[in-house]
Amino acid sequence: MEKVNMEESKLLELLEKHQVPVRTWGKGKARKVEELMAELMAGRSTLVNNGVGLVRLVRV
Prior knowledge:
The protein has helices spanning 8-17, 33-42, and strands spanning 45-49, 54-58. By secondary structure, the chain is an alpha+beta fold.
């Protein structure tokens, strides 16, 4: 997968635009936005707009 080069503020903006509830992230066992950012920057996953919403594709 292609590595994503994006500022964290832009990622948050994108997630909120697609109504992803980022305010609940990082609480309890939930992952933090920073972890998603690291995953995207390393090319381990990517975000795709499928016309219905935002989808996370993960490389396995």
